[in-house]
Each structure stands twice: as structure tokens, then as C-alpha cells.
Design brief:
- The protein is 30% helix and 24% strand.
- By secondary structure, it is α/β, with parallel strands linked by helices.
- The strands form eight sheets. The chain has a six-stranded mixed sheet.
- Strand 2 and strand 3 form a beta hairpin.
- Helix 4 packs across helix 5 and helix 4 crosses helix 8.
- The longest helix has 17 residues.
- The chain starts with 5 loop residues before the first strand and ends in a 7-residue tail after the last helix.
- 49% of the residues are buried.
- Bound molecules: 5'-O-[(S)-butoxy(hydroxy)phosphoryl]adenosine (WT7).
- The site of 5'-O-[(S)-butoxy(hydroxy)phosphoryl]adenosine (WT7) has 21 residues, from helix 10, strand 15, strand 22 and strand 23.
- 5'-O-[(S)-butoxy(hydroxy)phosphoryl]adenosine binds next to helix 10, strand 15, strand 22 and strand 23.
Length: 565
């Protein structure tokens, strides 16, 4: 069937059985009755995701946590409700109030999830910080958000530029404190705090978290998400992820990114479904072990991870019982044909691709069990959401024409601002009523969408979003570099790799040593995944009339379509 590029709909009953009917009639207001606030008027995302589940099924497991170092601990909804109440009381006793920003810079660990819930219960605004961020990346995000408190670990604390963050009043440490006395021990305070706490009730459009996302042309943007995102998360978890009572859900994305937040815990918990969280570095064998040990039924991951598992060969899969797996989904980068064939052949089912972004807050264009799949297609819009392809003036294009993938503003999990930069927010909406995504795509005659790449030069390496601008700025700060241009080069494993074109200052010559030095500069100041993996010395960096780097020309080089002089 895959030869023709079509996979027939899955037989049987799914949560979403009639896509066409829902497309015509569904409205997000229908799902509001699923939430306690529909009757009480009292809104809080964390209350809804955990305390309410604890009231319904307190002894049900919420979190199966384990780490590749052997650590293992499970948490019920009841215990998470209590611990997050204690943490909320701890934050509160430090003077943290509704609207204050709380940074969370931790590896995947129970303390991360508990702190996240606690801050949201308080009406505070979480600033998630990916554990691989280095000093400059942290400085930008903590400074811009004006975070008043930061939860981190002893290992990560040394990267935090504490002296340069005037707003940062409190550091809470989850481990031993070896560096300084000016920090608070997270566990000591949590254990001493009362488990009684009433969530702070908020407006549906009050901020819940600010997620910094790379932009092509400047500092990371603080994407502001609000409590109301729960409406979109609940219904996509139901219809796209097909969650049922009894499911064990594993989303492998890190909670430093939108997928690991929205679907890593919020969406499944809104349904009372337990999640698996695995700490430690990626390792294909360890992942197979995790899938089989917990009997994961629904698995949300990314093409690069699938390809890394594929490279383990048949021997790898044969050692594990993956028979509990009944639904697999993908996000973040193009789902390639070899991944789809592999999953059909080796896992006995297709992978369902989903398309969305940090800004959208929820799945937008998806594949569904009740619809046929088309090879290479990201699927069709979620019911209740209107998507289109528009030209550069915002006019809708007919089928089979490549243009800008756009979404009609107003879906429930939509970001509501760019923190302290409303002009950057408005820039997404300059063609009302459309939100213009920055992705190029087309739709076919049957309304299936096909992703065609970014239009703005943002790089997607192994599903992670990298700003060429940030990397270029690091490179040009080095004395050897007169000019730098960075672009995504197609790569079989990672989708794209970061490739840097550099112009050297006179007196410098290219060497492996210099390449390593430049790579380390980026790695140690921003984050390892942003560091270029390939280099080319050029005479000049192509620029547009206004002097900025010509992203299209660089892309042509990186694609190998043209060569620099
Ligand atoms: C960019 C958003 C929330 C998703 C995780 C990444 C690319 C996303 C797909 C897909 C091809 C995809 C787009 C998008 N992308 N999903 N199914 N196929 N590309 O979120 O870091 O905000 O990045 O990821 O280019 O614009 P993000």
C-alpha cells in the first residue's frame, strides 16, 4: 500500500470516527463542559490537570518516572496534588504571586513537574529552560522574562549568571548546595510546607508559561501561553492521540520545549492518563526498554529519534516486547518515507504525523486514525481550526500551489503575546485574519497539506529550532571571523544540520583547530545542538539590499544548488 503512497484508514472504533462530520460542526465551546470551571467559573490549568484528577481518581498513577542511572519513582495524582501544593506554599512564602515569572532549569525529574504545577497553581508564570542551555541562552531568557525565582539543580547552577540578573531574587536548588549559601533547598522547604493550598483562580487568558523560541532574525521570542490552552490540549489528546482509560502515554520530548509541556504531561493529565518520563540521555536500547517495561500504549516522538532506533536494526527490536504499543505519533520535522515503512513493517502500524509550532500551543494539522494517510503529508486541519495557504500579500492560494502555511487566528491554545515585544506578536498577524507560520506548504485537491520547509531561514536540526542569527552573532564575536552566515543543510539522520559559512579576518587561516574552537564557542555559550557541524570558508556572505544576511541565497548554498565563490 505504501508503494502508492497511501495507507488506508485503520478499521475499528477511534475517539474520532467521522472527521468530515466534525469538520463541519465541531466548535471548541463544546468541550468547555469537560472542565470544572464550566460550572464553577474557577479556572486554573494545574488544578484541572492534577487536583481535579486526584478528586476523581486519587490513587491513579500520574507519573512513571525513571532515569537511566537506575532511579525510579511513581507518583499518583493524589501525591502530585499534595507535593505541588507544598511547592506552591513554598513559592508563596517567598513572596511569589500571581503574574510573577518562575524559571525552571532542571533535567527531566519529578521536581521539574512539581515546580511547574506549583507555579501555575499560584497563578505565576513558568519560564521553562531546556537543561542544555548555557550561560548566554539562560541570561537572555531570565533577563527578558524578569524571572523572580529560579528552580535549578546543583549541577546546572554554575551556568546561571546570577550576578547579572537583578530581578532574580530566589534560587531554589533541588540537590546539594556546594557553590553558595545564598540558595534555598527545594526539598527541605517543600517538606516543611503545608500540603493544603487552594489554587489561585485566574482568567482564561491569564498567562501560564512563557516559552522562548528561536526567531530567524533576533533574540529568542517569549511565546506567551495562557490557561485556556487546556481546551485545545484536551480535545487533541482525545481525537489525535486517541487517549482512552488504561493508556500509558509516553511523549519523549523534553519539557524545555512546547511538545514536552503540552503533550508531555498537560494534555494526558487533563484526561487522567498516566505519563512516562525517562531521564538521562537518548539511547535506542534504553528507549525500547522503557517502551516495553512500562507497556507504553501511545507514543509521541520525532523522526530523528525513530531513525536512531532504526539504526539499531532488527536485533534491537527483537529483544523487546513492544506489543502494548497501539498508537504512534510524530512531530517536529518531516516524517520521511523510510520511517513510515519501518514502523509499518517492524512495529505493525503507521506513525501519525502532526504539525504545529511553539506558537500554536496545540496540534493543528494532523493525521487521524479514521482517515487515510498520504505519504509525505502532515495531514488535515483539526476540526474547529481553519488553515490555508496564502501568498506573500495574504491572499489565499488554490490547491497545489506552494505558499505560506497560515491559520485563522482564534484557536484556543494560540499564544497570546510575545513577552515585552507586542510588535513581534503583531508581525505574525499582518495579514488578518491569518497567523502566518513561517512554513512553506501546499495542499492537494483533497485538502491534505504537504510541508515544504521554512521560508525564513530558521533551522530545524533533529526537531530542534535553531536561530541562524544567534549562531552568526556568536561566530562573528570571535577575532578570526569577519562575517558569518548559517543555514540548515539537508541531512539523512537529523533532517538538517547547522552549516556555517565564514569569512576570515586577514591574518587568520582555516584549520581543524579553529573549527573546533568556533564550535566550542557556540556550544559553551548557547547550547550544543546549535553548534555548526559543517563549515565552509567563503569570500563574502550574501546580503540583501538592507544589509541583512540573504537567507534564500545561503539556503541555495546549503542545499548544494549553488556554490559560494
Ligand atoms: C517548526 C516549529 C510543536 C512542534 C515541535 C517543534 C517544524 C513541526 C512538523 C512536521 C515537518 C514540522 C515546522 C514548524 N515542524 N512539525 N510534522 N513536519 N516540520 O516546535 O520548535 O516551535 O518548531 O517545526 O517548521 O514551523 P517548534
Amino acid at each position: 500500500m505504501l508503494e502508492k503512497g497511501i495507507i488506508e484508514p485503520l478499521p475499528g472504533q477511534h475517539n474520532l470516527n467521522d472527521y468530515e462530520a466534525q469538520l463541519k460542526s465541531f466548535s471548541f465551546s463544546e468541550v468547555e463542559k469537560e472542565f470544572s470551571w464550566y460550572e464553577t467559573g474557577k479556572v486554573n490549568l494545574a488544578y484541572e490537570a492534577v487536583d481535579r484528577q486526584a478528586e476523581k481518581n486519587g490513587s491513579g498513577t500520574a507519573l512513571y518516572y525513571s532515569h537511566s542511572d537506575g532511579q525510579q519513582e511513581n507518583f499518583t495524582f493524589q501525591s502530585l496534588a499534595g507535593l505541588s501544593n507544598q511547592a506552591a506554599n513554598m513559592f508563596s512564602s517567598l513572596g511569589i504571586k500571581k503574574g510573577d515569572r518562575v524559571g525552571i532549569f532542571l533535567p527531566r525529574s519529578p521536581e521539574l513537574y512539581i515546580s511547574f504545577l506549583a507555579a501555575i497553581k499560584l497563578g505565576a508564570v513558568v519560564v521553562p529552560l531546556f537543561e542544555a542551555f548555557m550561560e548566554d541562552a539562560l541570561q537572555d531568557r531570565l533577563q527578558d522574562s524578569g524571572a523572580k525565582a529560579l528552580v535549578t539543580s546543583s549541577e546546572l547552577l554554575e551556568r546561571v549568571p546570577r550576578g547579572e540578573l537583578p530581578d532574580l531574587k530566589h534560587i531554589l536548588l533541588t540537590g546539594e548546595n556546594t557553590l553558595t549559601q545564598q540558595v534555598i533547598n527545594w526539598w527541605t522547604e517543600v517538606n516543611n510546607a503545608s500540603p493544603d493550598f487552594t489554587s489561585v483562580w485566574v482568567a482564561r487568558d491569564d498567562p501560564a508559561f512563557i516559552l522562548y523560541a528561536a526567531g530567524a532574525d533576533g533574540k529568542p521570542k517569549g511565546i506567551v501561553h495562557v490557561h485556556e490552552c487546556m481546551v485545545g490540549l484536551w480535545v487533541t489528546a482525545k481525537w489525535v492521540h486517541d487517549l482512552h482509560a488504561g493508556d500509558i502515554y509516553w511523549c519523549t520530548a523534553d519539557p524545555g520545549f512546547i511538545t514536552g509541556i503540552a503533550y508531555g504531561f498537560l494534555a494526558p493529565w487533563l484526561h487522567g492518563i498516566p505519563v512516562v518520563v525517562r531521564g538521562g540521555r537518548f539511547n535506542a536500547e534504553d528507549w525500547c526498554q522503557t517502551l516495553s517495561e512500562y507497556g507504553v500504549t501511545v507514543w509521541y516522538s520525532a523522526p530523528t529519534a525513530f531513525r536512531m532506533m532504526m539504526s539499531g536494526g532488527d536485533e534491537l527490536l527483537q529483544n523487546y516486547d513492544l506489543s502494548a504499543l497501539r498508537h504512534i505519533l510524530s512531530v517536529g520535522e518531516p516524517l520521511t518515507a523510510e520511517v513510515l515503512s519501518w514502523s509499518i513493517e517492524k512495529l505493525g502500524q503507521p506513525v501519525y504525523d502532526t504539525w504545529w509550532m511553539s506558537e500554536t500551543g496545540m496540534n493543528i494539522i494532523c493525521n487521524y486514525r479514521c482517515l487515510k494517510l498520504k505519504l509525505g503529508s502532515i495531514g488535515k486541519p483539526f476540526p474547529g481550526i481553519e488553515t490555508s495557504i496564502v501568498d506573500d500579500d495574504g491572499n489565499e492560494l488554490p490547491a497545489n500551489r506552494i505558499g505560506n502555511l497560515a491559520i485563522k487566528a482564534g484557536w484556543p491554545a494560540m499564544f497570546r503575546n510575545v513577552w515585552k515585544a507586542p510588535e513581534k506578536y503583531e508581525a505574525y498577524f499582518k495579514h488578518q485574519p491569518w497567523f502566518v507560520s513561517g512554513d512553506a506548504a501546499y495542499r492537494d485537491d483533497e485538502g491534505y497539506y504537504f510541508f515544504q520547509g521554512r521560508v525564513d531561514g530558521l533551522i530545524n536540526t533533529a526537531g530542534e529550532r535553531v536561530s541562524p542569527w544567534e549562531v552568526e552573532n556568536k561566530l562573528t564575536a570571535h577575532p578570526a571571523v569577519a562575517g558569518a552566515g548559517v543555514a540548515g543543510k539537508p541531512d539523512n539522520l537529523r533532517g538538517e544540520i547547522v552549516k556555517a559559512y565564514v569569512v576570515l579576518n586577514s591574518g587568520y587561516s582555516w584549520s581543524d583547530h579553529l573549527a573546533e574552537e568556533l564550535r566550542n564557542t557556540v556550544k559553551s555559550e548557547l547550547a550544543a545542538h546549535t553548534a555548526p557541524r559543517e563549515w565552509q570558508v567563503t569570500q563574502a556572505i550574501p546580503r540583501t539590499a538592507d544589509g541583512s544576511v540573504d537567507r534564500k541565497a545561503l539556503k541555495t548554498w546549503a542545499m548544494g544548488l549553488e556554490q559560494p565563490e
